[in-house]
Amino acid sequence: MTKMPQLPGQGEAIVEREAARNLNDTQGLSALGQIELWAARWLMQPRTAGFICLLILCVFAVAGLWPFVPIANQVSWIESRAGLRFGANGVAYSTGALTGEAGGACTIEIWVVPSEADGTSTLLSFYGPDGGQGIALQRSENTFRIDRETGGRRKVMYFPAKALYEQRPVFLTLVHGSSESSVYVDGVEVWRSDLLRAAPGDCAGGLGVGHPAKGRSSWKGEIWGLAIYGRELGPEEVQGSYMAWQSDGRPREEVTGKPKILYLFNEGEGDRIRDHGSAGLDLTIPPHYQDIRRSWFQPPPELEYWTAGTIEDIFVNIAGFVPFGAALCAFLSARLRLIWAGLAAVAGGLAVSLTIEYLQVFLPTRDSDVTDLITNTLGTALGVGLLFFWRRRLFRMGVGTGAR
């Protein structure tokens, strides 16, 4: 008898039908194999797989977009003295922009009381109209960090700063010069380096206090005073200014000259902080917590700036989308061939991640970045691959034939 030739793809269809038939046959399987077979039979049902997909999407919505309503700006006036208290989600920002010096040199004085050390928090940051970032002063884990972005390239300097973890008043001074930069704590120099030099735009543009120009790392603690000069202060001027702040609660013009920006935080009420310097750049306290600038799909950080938190986020994002990829592929395989169902599931994971990252642009408590988009899609693809492997394993076990 002549054997009819198989049409293209017919062999694959026969294999899939045979595998589906075998899923209903438990003869000859061990107890563990029968449990595995029951789980496969349950997951491969379109209604079950669809329900799992819907459940996972609800989890994604809560985890990625909560809270769904605006939250209060956690900035309040200190009752017992002049100053502002910042909570976990607090921000104040300038109503205009500061004109920097041609070379970018400046001196920043800030009087703070840190709260508990928890991750990265930003004291202040400059930002430009093009979305670029000037100087940002941050506390990161067990170090003090000076973050600067120039011409699209980022430069970060770290150095130990034990004083920022003692939860006591600390007076920080950054002298940012054309040949080198130095940091003083309570009038005493603690760090100096010629690897960080002033560049145009470093101390210019809009000013954010207690919040970065990009991302989400609010300062937690108190700020008692802030002054910015358009030049480098010498060591004696730094020491003299520190003593003036301690005795008078403000700098003395006969010691340092008039600063360009001076915030004494002595209003005690209201949503506006007056600038007593020459620039006249007042700060505003918005009623709701918000980003200073919306960040659209931030690029992945350079490897040298990866932290333990960065690696943890990558693994969490991948692991979170693995079950979604497997469930979506199982749901689609009832209507499509397995290979096409897998490709469609990966595209679905990309679409879900893209939607979440887009919506996070408008949420101040969330970060929208390309890293999440890549890792979520990778997690979906891994889930599809695991489902492929599982189905092939069940078929090779010889379900219904007595083989193991």
3D architecture notes:
The protein has helices at 10-22, 31-43, 46-65, 235-248, 253-256, 308-332, 338-360, 370-396; strands spanning 75-77, 84-86, 92-94, 106-114, 120-127, 133-140, 143-150, 153-160, 170-176, 181-185, 188-193, 206-209, 221-229, 261-263, 272-273, 283-284. The protein is elongated. 37% of the residues are buried. The chain folds into two domains: 18-66 and 306-396, no CATH class; 75-288, Jelly Rolls, CATH 2.60.120. The longest helix is centred in the last third of the chain and has 27 residues, at 370-396. By secondary structure, the protein is an alpha+beta fold. Helix 7 (338-360) packs antiparallel against helix 8 (370-396). It is 34% helix and 22% strand. Strands 1, 2, 4, 9, 10, 11, 13 and 14 form an eight-stranded antiparallel β-sheet that branches. It has an eight-stranded antiparallel β-sheet with strand order 8-7-6-5-12-3-16-15, with no helix packed on it.
